[in-house]
Amino acid sequence: MRWSIEHKLPLFATILLVAVAIAQLTIGYGEVRQASRALADKRLPLATKVLADLFQTGQGRVRITALAKDPAVVAFLRSGGRSDREAALAAMHRITTDTASNAGLELRDFSGKLLLRTGRFTIADSVLVSPGKDSARYGPLMRRDTTLFIAVAAASGGAERAGGGIVQQVARLSLSERTRATLTGLAGGDVTLLLGNASGDPWTDFATIVPAPPSSVLTSRTPVSYERGEVRRASAAPVPGTPWMVVAELPSRAILAPARAYVNSMAPLAFLIVIAGILIAWWGSRRLTKPLVGVTRAAEAIAAGNLEPRVPVGRDDELGRLARSFNTMAEQVARSHHHLEAQVAQRTQALEGTNAELESFSYSVSHDLRAPLRAIHGFARILLEDHQAQLDPEAQRLLGVINQNTRRMGQLIDDLLAFSRLGRREIATGVVDMEELTRTVADEVRRTDAGRKGSLVIQIDPLPPAHGDRPLLRQVMSNLLQNAAKFTSDRADAHVEVGSQPDGDQTVYFVKDNGAGFDGRYADKLFGVFQRLHSTEQFDGTGVGLAIVKRIVQRHGGRVWAEGKVDHGAAFYFTLPCEDR
Q: Which terminus of the chain has a smaller tally of CB atoms within 10 A, N or C?
């Protein structure tokens, strides 16, 4: 499809505007996305710090430590649970009552034997945490089925040999959607908060138990991305005084939401700017190219042979000067055309006279030169046939030479006439079955090939049809195959191959043989009239056959060339238009 400037200019402006709009949206999207991510990287560490501070266990540790040092509890544990029971129980009730459902407070000896308990939450009958000596110690989060709980323990009453025991509190974490929503609200509404052990499972989002984040999140001091259902950005922080960690995370879709909102809001505006630019470019293109269209149409009319059209001059700018220059040029072209027509008519008349003289010369060659040749040939044959007995051997040899050269001269005249007629013959083109034509010619060559020392094999590969004049193409193939048969006549196993290969909208046909070959330096001389690379004593011929091949192929719009090496055969190539041309 051919596009005019009138269409190309708006198209170029449209492409430029669309490219600018896309680039602007892309850059803006990238900047907003980067800003959103930077803001998220600031929010996440802040959220983890707030959550870690929320879960600080300073007061709980102080209460358990104080209870472990309470005199009533110390006396109770040192007595092995035999005295001061009520006083110890009263001290325990200040931390955990008997009706508490989410916690349990225990007094055990150092062997783990339960001596006294308050609270209803009992998950295991053992010491869950190695007790701290100077202050209470928190253990990791633990899981039983769908329940998460923690334990804090402190040693009471001194060393084990002095009596005493362990104060241990076990508390259940309250997991619910309400808890999660409350904590998420404190972090801004779109941040997910997680709590778990620094060493691994279990972990919770305060509504359910969830898999532990990867170690890359827990060990990184800066926010990192990972995938859990979807890509998330997360930051982790330890809870001071515990083996726990908190993680705050944001899904990537939430981080990218401002960038998507930017694109959604700016895309319509960019679209309107592009539409306005297209309309302006179209109007400007029409105004600019209208005079050029007039010049173009007038030039096309002149190129088609109509020398009358002229371009109206209605402007004083560059386009107006172009119109005036075009009209001046058109006048000069018209004058030159009329002068050229007169010269062509004169030279056509002269050419017709030359052709008539050439036809007369051809007639003379065909008839006037043949008559003396026939006479010479006839008398020499009479002498050989009727007076052979009176002639000595030398005279008989000389008459044989005369006879042979008159036949060769006759063949030379025939070839020259055939070569000269090729330039005047009209070509009747059509689809030619090259494979069938080649097989027919090959059969004729095999029948007429005589005096061969060995066998002759002509291999014909599948050949695609060509577009050309069948009789002329038959002449091409006949000359090439006869040439191959002649130059392989001294081979015991002569082999000739005919094949083809595609070459764009043409087909390359070739004829290869394993005959005498030729020196590749003189390949161009092969296709000249009377040009021979072998003597007549070696191989008979007039030196016109390949010149005829070249003339026919060139008249079909093709090329012809040859490749060869002495005593290693030769290959002749020619191109013809394909069938669907």
A: N
Laid out side by side, the sheet with 230-238 consists of 209-210, 200-204, 192-197, 244-251, 230-238, 224-228
Q: Where are the beta strands (DSSP E) in 375-443?
A: 430-432
- CA pair distance 228, 192, nearest whole angstrom: 12
pLDDT digits (tens, 9 = 90+) for 375-404: 676 767 777 777 777 777 777 777 776 766
- Report pTM: 0.47
DSSP line for 134-158? SS-EE---EEETTEEEEEEEEEESS
- Cβ-Cβ contacts under 8 Å for 47 (sequence gap 6 or more): 187, 188, 191, 193, 235, 248
Compare 301 and 79 and report the one with higher pLDDT. Answer: 79
- Domain spans in the chain, listed from the N-terminal domain onward: 54-253, 369-422, 430-577
Instruction: Please write the tens of the pLDDT for every residue from 357-382.
Output: 665 665 566 566 666 767 676 767 77
CA neighbor of 29 nearest in space, from 258, 271, 268, 251: 258
Decide which of 3.90.25.10, 3.40.30.10, 3.30.1330.30, 3.30.565.10 is the CATH code for 430-577: 3.30.565.10
